[in-house]
Input
Amino acid sequence: TNYRSGEHIVFFNNCVFRENNIAGLAGAVLEGHTGDEINKVAGPYVNSAQKFLDAKRGTGYVSIEYLGADSGDEGAPATLTKEEAGIIVEERVRAVVDELLGRRTFAERDIAFLVRTREEARTIVGILLSMNLNVESEYTVSVKNNPLIREILSLLKFIDRPDDDLSFASFITGRIFPRKTGTEASVMLEWLARKRLLSPSRPLYLEFRDDHKELYDTGFTYFTERSGYLPLYDLAMDLVRYWEIMARFPDDVPYVLHFLEVLKDLEQEGIMTIKGLTDRMAGRASNREDDSIWLLNAPESLNAIKVLTIHKAKGLQFPVVILPFISLSAFGSPGGPDRQRFFEAGDDGLKMLYLKKEYIDASPELNDVYRSKEREYLADELNNLYVAMTRAEEELYLLLTQTKKKKNYLKDYLFRIPEFAAGTCGTRILLGSMKPAGPDKPGEASSSMPLSFGDLTGGSKWAGRLKTARSGMAGYGLRFARARKLGDAVHRALSLVNTLPVDDAFIASICKTAASLEHAREITGDIMGSVRSFFDNPAFGRFFDLPPGAVSYNEKEIVDGTGNTFKLDRLVIRPDAVEIIDYKTGEGHSPRHAEQVNHYAHLVSGIYPDKEIRKYILYIESGEVVEA
Output
C-alpha cells in the first residue's frame, strides 16, 4: 500500500511501470536486443503496482505536458534546439509556480523540483530566484547566494570604495533601498539610464548626492565616513539596523543572522575589513578555507521551494513535485556518459575498453560489452524515473521536451498508454483534479499583527501576498515563450519612462537596460522596435505627455483590504481625474482585460474618492487604445 500519494498519482505510476508497458518501452529503446534481454530489464517492475489508502480516494493530480514546437506554433520545426527547449521550459516553470502559489493552496515549502544534474538545478534555482521566491538547494543554503545578502554585500563594497559604480547601482535598484526610502526601483532605473547618457565618466555616487542629497546623507554618509574605523561586524550591524532589513525582509532573517555570525567568526581569523570579506567570499584567500561556514542549516519551517537531484530525493516526499527536464534517452544519445571508454574488472586486473563504432562493428566481443552497457544504462534510467515519479503526495507535474539531437522516449510512451486516453487533450494529459484553492496559504497568518524581530520562522505573514500574478498567454510553445519574453522586456522598458519627450538615445538606453534585467539581450533589437513604435503612436504618447500638476507612477503597487498586492503598469494622477493604463502584448482582446482594470479602478477609487477614474487598455502590437 502506498501511504504517500493520492489515488490518481498511484494510478499514474501503476500504469507507467506496469511490466508489459515497461517491456514495450524497453524494446523501443533497446533496438536489436533479444526478448529475454528486454524482459530482464523490465523484470524488477513485475510487482510494482501499489494500492492507495481509502482516505486518499479521489485525490491526487497529474499533469503531463509536451512542450515541443508543435504545442502551439504552426509552421515551426517538429523538434527544438537545446536553447529553444530551455526557453519553453523556463516559461512553463514560471507559469506552473505562479498558478500553484496563486491558488493559495500550497506554500513555497510544499513545492519540490527534482532534476538529474547540477546544471539543471542551477537553471531552476536561477529561474525561481528571478521570480523573487525563496529557494532551498545546495546553491541557496549558502548565504553567499541569497539575493538579499548580495545586496548587503553590494552596499558594503560601495562603502569600501565609493567609486564602485556597479555596486552602488545594484544596491539602489535592489529591494532594500526602495522598501526603506519609498523610492521605487523603476525611478532609480530611469535615473541611472539618464545619468549614464549625460555624464558617463563621473562617479555615480556624486551624481546621486547632487540629485538626492537628503537620501544620500541619511542613508550612506554615516557608513562611508566610518568605513575602515568601525569593526566589520559593527558596521554591518549598523547598516542592518538603519535599513530595517530584519523587519522588512522576515523570510531572509535566517540568512542575515547567519551572515552576521560569519562576520563575527571571521574577525577571530583576523578578517576585519570589507576587502578581506569580499576576498574570502570569492575564495581568493591565501589558503582556500572550507566553504562550509557560509552554509545555512535550513530549518523545516523555512518557507522555500526545494530544488534537489532525484538521487537525493530517494526516501523523501513532497506535497507537489515538478519534473521540469524529465526524459528518457538511449545510451547512444548525445549528452550522456562517455560511451567509448569503459573500465572492466577481470582476473588480470582493471582493463579499459575503447568502444568506437568501427571497433564494435568489427568485434562481436566488444559489441556484447556495449549492448550490456546499454541495458545497464536503461535499467538505471528507469529506476531514476520511478524514484522521481513516486515522490509526490498531492500533485505531480511532468514537462517533456525533445531536442533535435536527443530523442525523448517518454513523449511517445506516455501519450500511448491506453489508460491515459480519457485524460489526453492535444499535447497534455491530465489525471485527477487540482487541489481546490484555499483562502490563505498554509502557514500564512491571517491576523493583522505587525511583524517583529522575533518572527524568525521563515513563514512570513506578508511575503506570499507580495507576489504579483502574471497574466498567462493562451499557449506555451516557442513562439509564445519568445512573445512573453519580449512583452516582459517592453513592460520593463516602459516602466523607465515617466514623461515625454524621449529620443532615440534614451530609448536605446532603457531598452538595453530592460533586455539585461529580463535576460533577453538576444532580442534587444525587437525591444527597441516595439518601444519606438509605442512612442511614435500619438494615441499612446498622450499618456506620457503630462500637464503641470499631473503626477505619474509606473509599476505602482496597491494593496486591497485583505493584503493582496496588485501592480498597475501606469497610474497618472491629473488635477481632475486618475488614469489607469494597462499594457497588453502578445494577446488579443479579452473580457478578462476589462475585468482586470475594473478591479484596479475599484481599488484606486478608494484612494481617490473625489476624482473621476479613467481606465485604458493599450494593445501594443495593434496600436489600439480601448477605454474600459
About this structure: The longest strand covers residues 392-400.
